[in-house]
């Protein structure tokens, strides 16, 4: 019986049956690939030692090919290690991105409200008129610019200020449109026909953040809308609390303090 080597790695190779060295590793991800590579390396080294031990002295094995195989295994191990580091970096970036998204909560954001998603037969748009309009027409177009719906307006819709327009998702023939992104176009003019530019930029406060199945984030706003980060045109600090709101908080804190001090046995 051959003597065992003093090297622990070689001892393992000499004492482990060949069929146990080449068992496939059933593990997903980079960790599984690394474990499989280590198992394949051990099996190759065991076969290499057996070949060297039993080779014909007059026709020795090609050491150049052996060296190339060992170098290839080492390069594969380095590549897997690099992938492990990359996975860790990606995970860290994802956590940092989520933390930055959460920081939007409580702040005011500005975005273009002319484009909205039609969901469950409903889409809400907001526009602002700098002054009263004599005529105003609301046009809804799809993502390709095709006119879907054209509606007139009443006096309230033509007044100076901010207005919300709710669309029922139907075209001019009363047919329900498929869900997707649609755009509002405001055609307003004065009594003498001078065009009035309607502003569709809206400011709203961020109340929460949601993530869809694809990993995309949307901001939940206090005006019942949800928007993606790419639609933002500005980010502003949270507005200062009004005096009556601060007074309300003080009164509430006093009420809670008195309730905590209340003794039912008195």
Write up what this structure looks like.
This protein is an alpha+beta fold and 266 residues long. It folds into two domains: 8-54 and 66-102; 108-236, Sandwich (Immunoglobulin-like), CATH 2.60.40. It is built from six helices and twelve strands. A hairpin with a 5-residue loop joins strand 4 and strand 5. Helix 3 (29-53) packs antiparallel against helix 4. It starts with 7 loop residues before the first helix and ends in a 5-residue tail after the last helix. Residues 1-5 and 18-22 have low confidence and may be disordered.
List its traits.
alpha+beta, Immunoglobulin-like, 266 residues, 38% helix, 27% strand, five-stranded antiparallel beta sheet, disordered N terminus, elongated
| Strands, total number | 12
CATH-defined architecture of the largest domain? Sandwich
Categorize the overall geometry: elongated
Provide a count of the helices.
6
**What are the segments in which pLDDT stays under 50 over at least 5 consecutive residues?**
1-5, 18-22
The biggest beta sheet reads: 5 strands, antiparallel
**Average pLDDT reading:** 76
Radius of gyration, in angstroms, nearest whole number:
35 Å
Order of helices and strands: HHHHEEEEEHEEEEEEEH
Estimate percent helicity.
25-40%
**Named CATH topology of the largest domain:** Immunoglobulin-like
Computed structural class: alpha+beta
CATH class identity of the largest domain: Mainly Beta
């Amino acid at each position: 019986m051959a003597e065992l080597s003093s090297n622990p790695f070689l001892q393992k190779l000499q004492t482990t049956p060949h069929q146990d060295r080449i068992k496939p590793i059933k593990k997903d991800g980079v960790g599984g690939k690394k474990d499989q590579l280590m198992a394949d390396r051990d099996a190759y080294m065991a076969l290499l030692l057996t070949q060297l031990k039993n080779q014909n002295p007059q026709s020795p094995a090609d050491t150049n090919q052996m060296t190339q195989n060992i170098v290839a295994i080492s390069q594969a191990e380095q590549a897997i290690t690099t992938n492990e580091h990359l996975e860790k970096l990606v995970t860290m970036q994802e956590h940092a991105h989520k933390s930055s998204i959460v920081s939007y909560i409580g702040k005011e954001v500005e975005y273009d409200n002319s484009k909205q998603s039609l969901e469950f037969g409903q889409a809400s748009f907001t526009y602002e008129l700098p002054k009263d309009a004599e005529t105003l027409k609301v046009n809804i177009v799809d993502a390709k610019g095709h006119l879907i719906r054209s509606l007139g307006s009443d006096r309230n819709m033509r007044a100076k200020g901010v207005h919300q327009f709710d669309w029922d998702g139907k075209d001019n023939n009363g047919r329900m449109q498929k869900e997707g992104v649609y755009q509002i176009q405001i055609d307003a003019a004065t009594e003498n026909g001078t065009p009035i530019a309607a502003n569709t930029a809206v400011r709203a406060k961020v109340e929460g953040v949601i993530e869809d199945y694809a990993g995309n984030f949307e901001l939940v706003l206090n005006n019942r809308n949800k928007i993606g980060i790419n639609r933002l045109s500005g980010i502003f600090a949270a507005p200062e609390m009004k005096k009556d709101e601060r007074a309300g908080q003080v009164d509430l804190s006093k009420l809670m303090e008195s309730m905590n001090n209340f003794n039912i046995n008195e």
